[in-house]
Amino acid sequence: MESYSVSQLADLAGVSVRTLHHYDRIGLLEPGGRTTAGxxxxxxxxxxRLQQILFFRELDFPLEDIRRILDSPxxxxxxxxxxxxxxxRERIARLRQQEKIITATLEEKTMSDREKFAGFGxxxxxxxxxxxxxxxxxxxxxASEAEITAWSDGEKASVWKEGKDIARELTGLMDGPxxxxxxxxxxxxxxxxxxxxxxCDNEAFRGMGKLYAEDEQFTAFYDNYAxxxxxxxxxxxxxYVKK
Length: 243
Known about the structure:
Elements: E1 4-5, H1 6-13, H2 17-25, E2 33-34, E3 40-42, H3 44-58, H4 63-71, H5 77-106, H6 113-116, H7 124-136, H8 138-149, H9 153-171, H10 181-194, H11 202-214, H12 216-223, H13 229-242
Antiparallel strand pairs: 1-3, 2-3
Helix pairs in contact: 1-2, 3-4, 3-5, 7-8, 9-10, 10-13, 11-12, 11-13
């Protein structure tokens, strides 16, 4: 088995020795062992893990998230690489779109204001998806997505309508107490609705309520129905979980 010193691996991967030392300190990439003189050495397992770390870094994942993903028992190397491949392909597509916009701008082609920004921004769906993956694990979210993919167009339309109806019904109760029977009944429907997508327990449901109130993407979505709905959602979820 081929092995590398810390400086050799740093040179191979195009990172600094200091970076590898830092990865070791935070438990992200520990060496395969040490020589009798106490120097770090890295084998094929560490090389493969470093490759995955650098792919995630290219995708702007925080180091702590990378460590949590790679250390999860649910994440095999093949699963991680396939997910990275998909994300990188999506990034390539966005960069190509941005390159076209730059070219059109340089050539002074007429574009609408919307077209000028077509290659920027992450879709709301993708932000929700990545947040769910970090919170509940890649395997759980993948299983959920596989189930959704199997739905017919009619089933998907029915489910999305149900989610919107729940938000609208809760909007009508915002002036009342969070523990009102009507509010809790709607929240029970929301819990059942949420479980269509993720196999979650009460604490996971409480976590979603926290996201509703603290994550700007979730807050914007629910506050589109009524200002403050996301915060009210969280309060009702907390009461629901306690009961």
